[in-house]
Design a protein that fits this description.
- The strands form 4 sheets. This protein has an 8-stranded parallel β-barrel, surrounded by 8 helices. It has a 3-stranded antiparallel β-sheet with strand order 11-12-13, covered by helices on one side. Strands 14-15-16 form a 3-stranded antiparallel β-sheet.
- It has 19 helices and 16 strands.
- The two termini are about 50 Å apart.
- α1 packs across α2.
- The longest helix has 18 residues.
- With about 525 residues, the chain is α/β, with parallel strands linked by helices.
- The relative contact order is 0.07.
- Helix content is about 40%, strand content about 20%.
Protein backbone atom coordinates (compact mmCIF):
# COMPACT_ATOMS: atom_id res chain seq x y z
CA UNK A 1 0.00 0.00 0.00
CA UNK A 2 1.29 3.46 -0.90
CA UNK A 3 0.41 6.61 0.96
CA UNK A 4 -0.31 9.97 -0.65
CA UNK A 5 2.33 12.62 -0.15
CA UNK A 6 1.46 16.24 -0.98
CA UNK A 7 3.93 18.79 -2.36
CA UNK A 8 3.49 22.46 -1.51
CA UNK A 9 5.60 25.01 -3.39
CA UNK A 10 6.38 28.38 -1.87
CA UNK A 11 8.84 29.69 -4.49
CA UNK A 12 6.66 32.69 -5.26
CA UNK A 13 6.70 33.88 -1.63
CA UNK A 14 9.57 32.32 0.33
CA UNK A 15 11.69 32.28 -2.82
CA UNK A 16 11.13 35.99 -3.30
CA UNK A 17 12.70 36.58 0.12
CA UNK A 18 16.05 35.51 -1.34
CA UNK A 19 18.52 38.38 -1.34
CA UNK A 20 18.64 39.87 -4.83
CA UNK A 21 15.49 38.09 -6.04
CA UNK A 22 12.41 39.99 -7.15
CA UNK A 23 9.64 38.64 -9.36
CA UNK A 24 7.29 40.65 -11.53
CA UNK A 25 3.64 39.58 -11.57
CA UNK A 26 4.12 38.17 -15.08
CA UNK A 27 7.15 36.16 -13.99
CA UNK A 28 5.21 34.78 -11.05
CA UNK A 29 2.49 33.59 -13.42
CA UNK A 30 5.05 31.87 -15.65
CA UNK A 31 6.69 30.13 -12.69
CA UNK A 32 3.28 29.08 -11.35
CA UNK A 33 2.50 27.49 -14.73
CA UNK A 34 5.81 25.59 -14.69
CA UNK A 35 5.08 24.30 -11.18
CA UNK A 36 1.61 23.26 -12.26
CA UNK A 37 2.95 21.31 -15.22
CA UNK A 38 5.45 19.62 -12.93
CA UNK A 39 2.60 18.42 -10.72
CA UNK A 40 2.88 20.08 -7.30
CA UNK A 41 -0.33 20.10 -5.24
CA UNK A 42 -0.25 23.66 -3.89
CA UNK A 43 1.27 26.80 -5.38
CA UNK A 44 1.59 29.57 -2.83
CA UNK A 45 1.29 32.77 -4.81
CA UNK A 46 2.37 35.32 -2.22
CA UNK A 47 0.90 37.67 0.37
CA UNK A 48 -1.99 39.73 -1.04
CA UNK A 49 -1.82 43.31 0.14
CA UNK A 50 1.75 43.04 1.39
CA UNK A 51 3.24 44.52 -1.80
CA UNK A 52 1.99 45.74 -5.20
CA UNK A 53 3.42 42.77 -7.13
CA UNK A 54 1.61 40.16 -5.05
CA UNK A 55 -1.62 42.14 -5.22
CA UNK A 56 -1.30 42.39 -9.01
CA UNK A 57 -0.66 38.65 -9.24
CA UNK A 58 -3.84 37.79 -7.34
CA UNK A 59 -5.93 40.30 -9.31
CA UNK A 60 -5.36 38.15 -12.42
CA UNK A 61 -4.25 34.74 -11.12
CA UNK A 62 -3.24 31.97 -13.51
CA UNK A 63 -5.58 29.04 -14.06
CA UNK A 64 -3.95 26.04 -12.41
CA UNK A 65 -4.74 22.41 -11.72
CA UNK A 66 -2.79 22.87 -8.49
CA UNK A 67 -4.48 24.60 -5.57
CA UNK A 68 -3.53 28.27 -5.61
CA UNK A 69 -2.87 29.48 -2.08
CA UNK A 70 -2.67 32.95 -0.58
CA UNK A 71 -0.41 33.57 2.39
CA UNK A 72 -0.94 35.79 5.40
CA UNK A 73 -0.72 35.84 9.16
CA UNK A 74 -3.11 35.21 12.02
CA UNK A 75 -5.19 38.17 13.15
CA UNK A 76 -3.65 40.84 15.29
CA UNK A 77 -4.37 41.13 18.98
CA UNK A 78 -7.16 43.44 20.02
CA UNK A 79 -9.46 42.94 17.04
CA UNK A 80 -11.71 40.20 15.71
CA UNK A 81 -10.83 38.02 12.74
CA UNK A 82 -13.72 39.53 10.80
CA UNK A 83 -12.38 43.06 11.35
CA UNK A 84 -8.69 42.47 10.71
CA UNK A 85 -7.76 44.33 7.51
CA UNK A 86 -4.62 42.24 6.87
CA UNK A 87 -6.59 39.00 7.12
CA UNK A 88 -9.33 40.52 4.97
CA UNK A 89 -6.84 41.30 2.17
CA UNK A 90 -5.73 37.67 2.13
CA UNK A 91 -9.32 36.41 1.97
CA UNK A 92 -10.20 38.92 -0.74
CA UNK A 93 -7.66 37.26 -3.04
CA UNK A 94 -10.35 34.62 -3.53
CA UNK A 95 -8.04 31.59 -3.47
CA UNK A 96 -9.53 28.24 -2.43
CA UNK A 97 -6.71 27.75 0.07
CA UNK A 98 -5.19 30.16 2.59
CA UNK A 99 -2.03 29.62 4.62
CA UNK A 100 -1.64 31.65 7.82
CA UNK A 101 1.58 31.85 9.80
CA UNK A 102 1.38 32.05 13.57
CA UNK A 103 3.80 31.98 16.49
CA UNK A 104 4.24 28.68 18.32
CA UNK A 105 7.35 29.54 20.31
CA UNK A 106 6.45 31.10 23.65
CA UNK A 107 9.65 33.17 23.55
CA UNK A 108 8.50 34.82 20.29
CA UNK A 109 4.96 35.28 21.61
CA UNK A 110 6.11 37.16 24.69
CA UNK A 111 9.15 38.92 23.19
CA UNK A 112 8.32 39.59 19.51
CA UNK A 113 4.52 39.92 19.74
CA UNK A 114 4.46 41.17 23.33
CA UNK A 115 1.16 39.46 24.13
CA UNK A 116 0.00 36.86 26.62
CA UNK A 117 0.35 33.20 25.58
CA UNK A 118 -3.43 32.68 25.92
CA UNK A 119 -4.14 35.60 23.58
CA UNK A 120 -1.88 34.10 20.91
CA UNK A 121 -3.80 30.82 21.17
CA UNK A 122 -7.07 32.73 20.70
CA UNK A 123 -5.63 34.53 17.65
CA UNK A 124 -4.70 31.19 16.05
CA UNK A 125 -8.03 29.56 16.84
CA UNK A 126 -10.18 32.51 15.72
CA UNK A 127 -8.22 33.12 12.50
CA UNK A 128 -8.40 29.50 11.36
CA UNK A 129 -12.08 29.27 12.30
CA UNK A 130 -12.75 32.41 10.23
CA UNK A 131 -11.11 30.85 7.16
CA UNK A 132 -13.11 27.67 7.55
CA UNK A 133 -16.35 29.65 7.96
CA UNK A 134 -15.53 31.42 4.68
CA UNK A 135 -15.28 28.04 2.95
CA UNK A 136 -11.50 28.07 2.49
CA UNK A 137 -9.00 25.30 3.03
CA UNK A 138 -7.06 26.48 6.10
CA UNK A 139 -3.32 25.82 6.43
CA UNK A 140 -1.50 26.84 9.59
CA UNK A 141 2.24 27.46 9.39
CA UNK A 142 3.53 26.82 12.91
CA UNK A 143 6.43 29.27 12.90
CA UNK A 144 9.54 28.37 14.96
CA UNK A 145 7.78 25.17 15.97
CA UNK A 146 10.84 22.99 16.58
CA UNK A 147 12.64 25.63 18.64
CA UNK A 148 9.36 26.35 20.43
CA UNK A 149 8.80 22.68 21.20
CA UNK A 150 12.29 22.37 22.64
CA UNK A 151 11.72 25.42 24.87
CA UNK A 152 8.14 24.64 25.96
CA UNK A 153 6.59 21.48 24.45
CA UNK A 154 3.21 21.98 26.11
CA UNK A 155 2.73 25.47 24.68
CA UNK A 156 3.93 24.53 21.17
CA UNK A 157 1.47 21.63 21.13
CA UNK A 158 -1.31 23.88 22.47
CA UNK A 159 -0.82 26.14 19.42
CA UNK A 160 -1.24 23.15 17.11
CA UNK A 161 -4.30 22.02 19.08
CA UNK A 162 -5.89 25.46 18.67
CA UNK A 163 -5.52 25.36 14.88
CA UNK A 164 -6.52 21.71 14.63
CA UNK A 165 -9.68 22.18 16.72
CA UNK A 166 -10.64 25.21 14.60
CA UNK A 167 -10.59 23.08 11.44
CA UNK A 168 -7.14 23.52 9.86
CA UNK A 169 -6.56 21.02 7.06
CA UNK A 170 -2.79 21.18 7.40
CA UNK A 171 -0.59 22.00 10.39
CA UNK A 172 2.85 22.74 9.02
CA UNK A 173 5.78 22.33 11.40
CA UNK A 174 8.36 24.99 10.57
CA UNK A 175 12.06 24.86 11.30
CA UNK A 176 12.17 28.61 10.73
CA UNK A 177 15.75 29.18 11.87
CA UNK A 178 17.01 26.10 10.02
CA UNK A 179 19.06 24.80 12.94
CA UNK A 180 17.23 21.63 13.97
CA UNK A 181 19.00 18.37 13.19
CA UNK A 182 17.11 15.81 11.04
CA UNK A 183 16.99 13.21 13.82
CA UNK A 184 15.51 15.78 16.20
CA UNK A 185 12.93 16.78 13.58
CA UNK A 186 11.84 13.14 13.29
CA UNK A 187 11.71 12.76 17.08
CA UNK A 188 9.47 15.83 17.49
CA UNK A 189 7.21 14.82 14.59
CA UNK A 190 6.63 11.45 16.22
CA UNK A 191 5.85 13.20 19.51
CA UNK A 192 3.27 15.44 17.79
CA UNK A 193 1.57 12.40 16.26
CA UNK A 194 1.62 10.59 19.60
CA UNK A 195 0.01 13.69 21.11
CA UNK A 196 -3.02 13.08 18.91
CA UNK A 197 -2.58 14.99 15.64
CA UNK A 198 -2.57 12.55 12.68
CA UNK A 199 0.34 12.55 10.28
CA UNK A 200 -1.97 13.08 7.31
CA UNK A 201 -2.75 16.52 8.77
CA UNK A 202 0.92 17.48 9.25
CA UNK A 203 3.36 19.23 6.93
CA UNK A 204 7.06 20.10 7.14
CA UNK A 205 8.73 23.41 6.25
CA UNK A 206 12.52 23.48 6.69
CA UNK A 207 15.20 26.07 6.07
CA UNK A 208 18.72 25.31 4.90
CA UNK A 209 20.90 27.14 7.42
CA UNK A 210 22.84 23.96 8.26
CA UNK A 211 22.65 22.57 4.69
CA UNK A 212 20.17 19.95 5.92
CA UNK A 213 16.77 21.24 4.78
CA UNK A 214 16.23 18.32 2.38
CA UNK A 215 17.46 15.80 4.96
CA UNK A 216 15.18 17.33 7.60
CA UNK A 217 12.19 17.16 5.26
CA UNK A 218 12.85 13.50 4.43
CA UNK A 219 13.25 12.69 8.13
CA UNK A 220 9.87 14.32 8.80
CA UNK A 221 8.24 12.27 6.04
CA UNK A 222 9.64 9.04 7.47
CA UNK A 223 8.35 10.12 10.89
CA UNK A 224 4.83 10.62 9.55
CA UNK A 225 4.15 14.03 7.95
CA UNK A 226 2.33 13.91 4.63
CA UNK A 227 2.87 17.40 3.20
CA UNK A 228 6.30 18.72 2.20
CA UNK A 229 6.93 22.41 1.56
CA UNK A 230 9.85 23.80 -0.39
CA UNK A 231 11.03 26.00 -3.23
CA UNK A 232 12.50 25.45 -6.69
CA UNK A 233 16.31 25.55 -6.63
CA UNK A 234 16.15 25.96 -2.85
CA UNK A 235 15.43 29.69 -3.02
CA UNK A 236 14.64 31.38 0.26
CA UNK A 237 15.73 33.77 2.94
CA UNK A 238 19.27 33.50 4.29
CA UNK A 239 20.52 30.06 3.15
CA UNK A 240 17.27 29.09 1.44
CA UNK A 241 14.47 26.57 1.88
CA UNK A 242 14.18 22.85 1.27
CA UNK A 243 14.97 22.36 -2.41
CA UNK A 244 12.05 20.80 -4.28
CA UNK A 245 14.33 20.26 -7.26
CA UNK A 246 16.17 17.77 -5.06
CA UNK A 247 13.24 16.52 -3.01
CA UNK A 248 10.98 15.61 -5.93
CA UNK A 249 13.36 13.15 -7.68
CA UNK A 250 14.46 11.76 -4.32
CA UNK A 251 10.87 11.01 -3.34
CA UNK A 252 10.11 9.46 -6.73
CA UNK A 253 13.33 7.52 -7.26
CA UNK A 254 14.87 6.65 -3.91
CA UNK A 255 13.87 4.07 -1.33
CA UNK A 256 12.13 3.85 1.00
CA UNK A 257 10.14 6.75 -0.46
CA UNK A 258 9.62 5.52 -4.04
CA UNK A 259 7.70 2.40 -3.05
CA UNK A 260 6.02 3.78 0.05
CA UNK A 261 4.56 7.07 -1.20
CA UNK A 262 2.86 8.47 -4.25
CA UNK A 263 2.84 12.14 -5.27
CA UNK A 264 1.02 14.09 -7.94
CA UNK A 265 4.26 14.38 -9.94
CA UNK A 266 4.25 11.69 -12.66
CA UNK A 267 7.49 9.91 -13.53
CA UNK A 268 7.27 11.19 -17.08
CA UNK A 269 7.45 14.77 -15.75
CA UNK A 270 10.89 14.20 -14.22
CA UNK A 271 12.79 14.78 -17.51
CA UNK A 272 11.50 18.38 -17.44
CA UNK A 273 13.20 19.03 -14.10
CA UNK A 274 16.43 20.43 -15.55
CA UNK A 275 14.63 22.78 -17.92
CA UNK A 276 12.33 24.02 -15.12
CA UNK A 277 15.29 24.64 -12.85
CA UNK A 278 17.27 26.50 -15.50
CA UNK A 279 14.28 28.50 -16.67
CA UNK A 280 13.85 29.82 -13.13
CA UNK A 281 17.51 30.87 -13.12
CA UNK A 282 17.00 32.54 -16.50
CA UNK A 283 14.07 34.54 -15.15
CA UNK A 284 16.19 35.64 -12.20
CA UNK A 285 19.25 36.28 -14.39
CA UNK A 286 21.22 33.96 -12.13
CA UNK A 287 23.92 31.49 -13.10
CA UNK A 288 22.68 27.92 -12.47
CA UNK A 289 24.60 26.07 -9.76
CA UNK A 290 26.80 23.59 -11.58
CA UNK A 291 27.03 21.36 -8.51
CA UNK A 292 23.29 21.22 -7.81
CA UNK A 293 22.06 17.69 -7.14
CA UNK A 294 20.23 16.03 -10.06
CA UNK A 295 19.94 19.19 -12.22
CA UNK A 296 23.40 20.79 -12.10
CA UNK A 297 25.64 20.78 -15.16
CA UNK A 298 28.26 18.91 -13.12
CA UNK A 299 25.85 16.48 -11.46
CA UNK A 300 26.89 13.74 -13.90
CA UNK A 301 30.34 15.01 -14.90
CA UNK A 302 33.23 12.56 -14.60
CA UNK A 303 36.55 14.36 -14.69
CA UNK A 304 38.99 11.81 -13.27
CA UNK A 305 40.42 9.33 -15.77
CA UNK A 306 39.77 6.38 -13.44
CA UNK A 307 36.10 7.34 -13.17
CA UNK A 308 35.69 7.80 -16.91
CA UNK A 309 37.20 4.40 -17.58
CA UNK A 310 34.67 2.77 -15.26
CA UNK A 311 31.79 4.80 -16.72
CA UNK A 312 32.59 3.42 -20.16
CA UNK A 313 32.12 -0.09 -18.82
CA UNK A 314 29.03 0.58 -16.71
CA UNK A 315 27.63 4.04 -15.85
CA UNK A 316 26.27 2.79 -12.54
CA UNK A 317 29.84 2.59 -11.24
CA UNK A 318 29.76 6.34 -10.55
CA UNK A 319 26.13 7.41 -11.15
CA UNK A 320 23.27 6.92 -8.69
CA UNK A 321 20.64 7.36 -11.42
CA UNK A 322 20.71 7.65 -15.23
CA UNK A 323 21.01 11.42 -15.90
CA UNK A 324 18.32 11.41 -18.60
CA UNK A 325 15.69 10.43 -15.99
CA UNK A 326 15.74 14.04 -14.72
CA UNK A 327 16.52 15.62 -18.09
CA UNK A 328 20.25 15.92 -17.48
CA UNK A 329 23.19 14.52 -19.45
CA UNK A 330 26.42 12.72 -18.71
CA UNK A 331 29.59 14.72 -19.29
CA UNK A 332 33.13 13.40 -19.50
CA UNK A 333 35.09 16.66 -19.54
CA UNK A 334 38.69 17.06 -20.59
CA UNK A 335 41.29 18.37 -18.17
CA UNK A 336 44.86 17.85 -17.07
CA UNK A 337 43.57 14.96 -14.93
CA UNK A 338 42.16 13.14 -17.93
CA UNK A 339 43.40 9.95 -19.48
CA UNK A 340 42.75 8.25 -22.80
CA UNK A 341 39.51 6.78 -21.40
CA UNK A 342 38.11 10.27 -20.83
CA UNK A 343 39.21 11.33 -24.27
CA UNK A 344 37.75 8.33 -26.08
CA UNK A 345 34.41 8.74 -24.29
CA UNK A 346 34.33 12.47 -25.01
CA UNK A 347 35.07 11.96 -28.69
CA UNK A 348 32.42 9.24 -28.98
CA UNK A 349 29.90 11.66 -27.45
CA UNK A 350 30.91 14.23 -30.08
CA UNK A 351 30.66 11.74 -32.93
CA UNK A 352 34.43 11.92 -33.55
CA UNK A 353 37.10 9.26 -33.76
CA UNK A 354 40.83 9.04 -34.32
CA UNK A 355 43.81 6.75 -33.99
CA UNK A 356 45.84 6.52 -30.78
CA UNK A 357 48.52 8.90 -32.09
CA UNK A 358 45.91 11.60 -32.69
CA UNK A 359 44.35 10.98 -29.30
CA UNK A 360 47.72 11.39 -27.60
CA UNK A 361 48.31 14.66 -29.47
CA UNK A 362 44.96 15.97 -28.29
CA UNK A 363 45.66 14.91 -24.73
CA UNK A 364 49.13 16.48 -24.72
CA UNK A 365 47.79 19.73 -26.14
CA UNK A 366 44.98 19.88 -23.59
CA UNK A 367 47.37 19.28 -20.69
CA UNK A 368 49.88 21.82 -21.99
CA UNK A 369 47.22 24.49 -22.41
CA UNK A 370 45.70 23.79 -19.01
CA UNK A 371 49.19 24.36 -17.61
CA UNK A 372 48.96 27.83 -19.20
CA UNK A 373 45.64 28.50 -17.45
CA UNK A 374 42.97 27.05 -19.76
CA UNK A 375 40.15 25.00 -18.21
CA UNK A 376 38.50 22.60 -20.63
CA UNK A 377 36.37 20.78 -18.06
CA UNK A 378 34.17 23.89 -17.91
CA UNK A 379 34.62 24.89 -21.57
CA UNK A 380 33.76 21.77 -23.62
CA UNK A 381 33.11 23.77 -26.81
CA UNK A 382 36.71 25.02 -26.85
CA UNK A 383 37.90 21.47 -26.28
CA UNK A 384 35.89 20.23 -29.26
CA UNK A 385 37.60 22.76 -31.50
CA UNK A 386 41.04 21.53 -30.36
CA UNK A 387 40.02 17.92 -30.99
CA UNK A 388 38.75 18.74 -34.47
CA UNK A 389 41.97 20.59 -35.33
CA UNK A 390 44.17 17.67 -34.26
CA UNK A 391 41.93 15.19 -36.11
CA UNK A 392 41.98 17.32 -39.26
CA UNK A 393 38.23 17.89 -39.06
CA UNK A 394 38.14 21.65 -38.55
CA UNK A 395 36.78 23.46 -41.62
CA UNK A 396 38.26 26.74 -42.86
CA UNK A 397 35.48 29.12 -41.83
CA UNK A 398 36.96 32.62 -41.63
CA UNK A 399 40.10 34.40 -40.52
CA UNK A 400 40.34 37.31 -38.10
CA UNK A 401 42.89 39.76 -39.48
CA UNK A 402 42.74 42.21 -36.60
CA UNK A 403 40.54 43.76 -33.97
CA UNK A 404 40.60 46.92 -31.88
CA UNK A 405 38.68 48.09 -28.82
CA UNK A 406 38.59 51.62 -27.47
CA UNK A 407 37.16 52.61 -24.10
CA UNK A 408 36.09 56.20 -23.52
CA UNK A 409 35.05 57.95 -20.32
CA UNK A 410 33.86 61.52 -20.45
CA UNK A 411 31.27 63.84 -18.96
CA UNK A 412 28.09 64.93 -20.74
CA UNK A 413 26.54 68.37 -20.72
CA UNK A 414 24.98 67.64 -17.31
CA UNK A 415 28.35 66.76 -15.81
CA UNK A 416 27.50 63.05 -15.56
CA UNK A 417 30.15 60.40 -16.24
CA UNK A 418 29.52 58.61 -19.56
CA UNK A 419 31.30 55.43 -20.58
CA UNK A 420 31.39 54.05 -24.09
CA UNK A 421 33.31 51.22 -25.75
CA UNK A 422 33.75 50.78 -29.48
CA UNK A 423 35.02 47.64 -31.18
CA UNK A 424 36.35 47.14 -34.71
CA UNK A 425 36.78 43.60 -36.08
CA UNK A 426 38.22 42.81 -39.50
CA UNK A 427 37.66 39.29 -40.85
CA UNK A 428 38.32 37.57 -44.15
CA UNK A 429 35.60 35.23 -45.47
CA UNK A 430 36.07 33.44 -48.79
CA UNK A 431 38.89 35.87 -49.63
CA UNK A 432 36.73 38.94 -48.97
CA UNK A 433 37.74 41.40 -46.26
CA UNK A 434 34.84 42.47 -44.03
CA UNK A 435 35.05 45.26 -41.44
CA UNK A 436 32.48 45.62 -38.67
CA UNK A 437 32.14 48.32 -36.02
CA UNK A 438 29.92 48.17 -32.95
CA UNK A 439 29.35 50.24 -29.83
CA UNK A 440 28.68 48.91 -26.35
CA UNK A 441 25.37 50.72 -25.85
CA UNK A 442 22.19 48.64 -25.67
CA UNK A 443 18.88 49.87 -27.16
CA UNK A 444 18.13 51.71 -23.90
CA UNK A 445 21.44 53.58 -24.07
CA UNK A 446 23.15 51.64 -21.27
CA UNK A 447 26.84 50.84 -21.65
CA UNK A 448 27.41 47.07 -21.69
CA UNK A 449 31.21 47.21 -21.82
CA UNK A 450 34.01 46.33 -24.24
CA UNK A 451 33.35 42.57 -24.36
CA UNK A 452 29.77 43.20 -25.44
CA UNK A 453 31.01 45.57 -28.14
CA UNK A 454 33.48 42.94 -29.34
CA UNK A 455 30.81 40.23 -29.45
CA UNK A 456 28.48 42.43 -31.46
CA UNK A 457 31.22 43.47 -33.90
CA UNK A 458 32.47 39.90 -34.41
CA UNK A 459 28.97 38.56 -35.10
CA UNK A 460 27.84 41.55 -37.16
CA UNK A 461 29.09 40.55 -40.60
CA UNK A 462 30.52 37.10 -41.33
CA UNK A 463 29.44 36.98 -44.94
CA UNK A 464 27.78 33.71 -45.89
CA UNK A 465 27.93 32.53 -42.27
CA UNK A 466 26.00 35.46 -40.85
CA UNK A 467 22.58 33.82 -40.66
CA UNK A 468 24.00 31.01 -38.52
CA UNK A 469 25.39 33.33 -35.83
CA UNK A 470 22.60 35.87 -35.55
CA UNK A 471 20.96 34.06 -32.63
CA UNK A 472 24.02 33.74 -30.35
CA UNK A 473 23.46 35.33 -26.95
CA UNK A 474 25.97 35.78 -24.13
CA UNK A 475 24.57 34.26 -20.93
CA UNK A 476 27.43 34.53 -18.44
CA UNK A 477 30.95 35.93 -18.23
CA UNK A 478 33.46 34.73 -15.63
CA UNK A 479 36.96 36.02 -15.02
CA UNK A 480 39.73 34.40 -12.99
CA UNK A 481 43.19 35.88 -12.37
CA UNK A 482 45.56 32.94 -12.55
CA UNK A 483 48.68 34.66 -11.21
CA UNK A 484 49.19 37.78 -9.15
CA UNK A 485 51.44 40.79 -9.62
CA UNK A 486 52.84 42.14 -12.86
CA UNK A 487 52.81 38.68 -14.52
CA UNK A 488 49.06 38.15 -13.99
CA UNK A 489 47.33 35.86 -16.48
CA UNK A 490 43.58 36.18 -16.96
CA UNK A 491 41.23 33.30 -17.76
CA UNK A 492 37.82 34.17 -19.19
CA UNK A 493 34.98 31.65 -19.50
CA UNK A 494 31.88 32.69 -21.41
CA UNK A 495 28.57 30.82 -21.56
CA UNK A 496 26.47 31.19 -24.70
CA UNK A 497 23.01 30.20 -25.88
CA UNK A 498 21.33 30.16 -29.28
CA UNK A 499 17.76 30.30 -30.51
CA UNK A 500 17.43 26.50 -30.35
CA UNK A 501 18.19 26.53 -26.62
CA UNK A 502 21.66 25.02 -27.04
CA UNK A 503 24.19 26.16 -24.45
CA UNK A 504 27.95 26.00 -24.74
CA UNK A 505 30.98 27.39 -22.92
CA UNK A 506 34.32 28.60 -24.23
CA UNK A 507 37.58 29.72 -22.64
CA UNK A 508 40.29 32.25 -23.43
CA UNK A 509 43.58 32.97 -21.63
CA UNK A 510 45.83 35.99 -21.95
CA UNK A 511 47.63 38.59 -19.82
CA UNK A 512 45.10 40.99 -21.41
CA UNK A 513 41.48 40.51 -20.27
CA UNK A 514 40.10 41.86 -23.54
CA UNK A 515 42.27 39.50 -25.58
CA UNK A 516 41.24 36.54 -23.40
CA UNK A 517 37.61 37.55 -23.88
CA UNK A 518 38.00 37.81 -27.64
CA UNK A 519 39.54 34.32 -27.79
CA UNK A 520 36.51 32.90 -25.94
CA UNK A 521 34.12 34.85 -28.19
CA UNK A 522 35.91 33.61 -31.30
CA UNK A 523 35.69 29.99 -30.13
CA UNK A 524 31.96 30.45 -29.51
CA UNK A 525 31.30 31.58 -33.07
CA UNK A 526 33.51 28.86 -34.57
CA UNK A 527 31.82 26.15 -32.48
CA UNK A 528 28.35 27.33 -33.52
CA UNK A 529 29.31 27.25 -37.20
CA UNK A 530 30.82 23.76 -36.87
CA UNK A 531 27.51 22.51 -35.52
Amino acid sequence: MTERLYLYDTTLRDGQQTQGVSFSAGEKREIAAMLDTLGVDHVEGGWPGANPTDSEFFEAPPKLSATLTAFGMTKRAGRSAANDDVLAAVLNAGTPSVCLVGKTNIFHVETALGIAPEENLANIRDSVAHLVAEGREAIFDAEHFFDGYTLDPAYALACLDAAYAAGARWLVLCDTNGGTMPARIAEIVRAVIAHGIPGDRLGIHTHNDTEQAVAGSLAAVEAGVRQVQGTLNGLGERCGNANLTTLIPTLLLKEPFASRYVTNVPRDALPTLVSVSRRLDDILNRVPRRDAAYVGASAFAHKAGLHASAILKDPTTYEHIPPEVVGNARIVPMSNQAGLSNLRKRLVDLGLEGDEAALRRILERVKAREDQGYAYDVAPASFELIAREELGLMPDLFEVERYRVTVERRRNERGEAVRLSEAVVVVRVDGEKLLSVSESLDPEGTDRGPVNALHRALAKDLGRWQEQVDDIRLKDFRVRIMQGGVEAVTRVIIDHEDGQGRRWSTVGVSPNIVDASFEALLDAVRWKLVQ
